Amino acid sequence: MFSLDSILVLATGFGVFLIGSLLGYFIRKVVMKNKAKSAEDKAEKILQKAKAQEKEILLQAKEKSLTVLEEGKREANDRRREIQSQQQRLEQRENKFDQQLLALEDKKTKLEQQKTEIERVKARVEELKEEQISKLQSIAGLSKDQARDELFRIIEDTEKETLVHRMHKLEQVSEEEIERKAKQVISLAVQRFASSHVVDATTTMVELPSDEMKGRIIGKEGRNIKTLERLTGCELIIDDTPEMIMISGFSPVRRQVALRALQALIKDGRIQPARIEEAITDAKKNLAKEMRKSGEDALYELGIPVPSIDPKLISILGRLKFRTSYGQNVLQHSIEVARISGMLAEELGADVFACKKGGLFHDIGKAVDHDMQGAHPQIGYNIMKKFGFPEEIAYQSVAHHEDKPKTIEGVIVKAADAISGARPGARRNTLEEYIQRLQNLEDTAMGFEGVEKAYAIQAGREVRVFVRPENIDELNSQNLARDIAKKIESELTYPGEVRVTVIRETRAVEYAR
Question: Given 1.10.3210.10, 3.40.50.1100, 1.25.40.20, 1.10.10.10, which CATH number is that of 295-422?
Answer without folding.
Answer: 1.10.3210.10
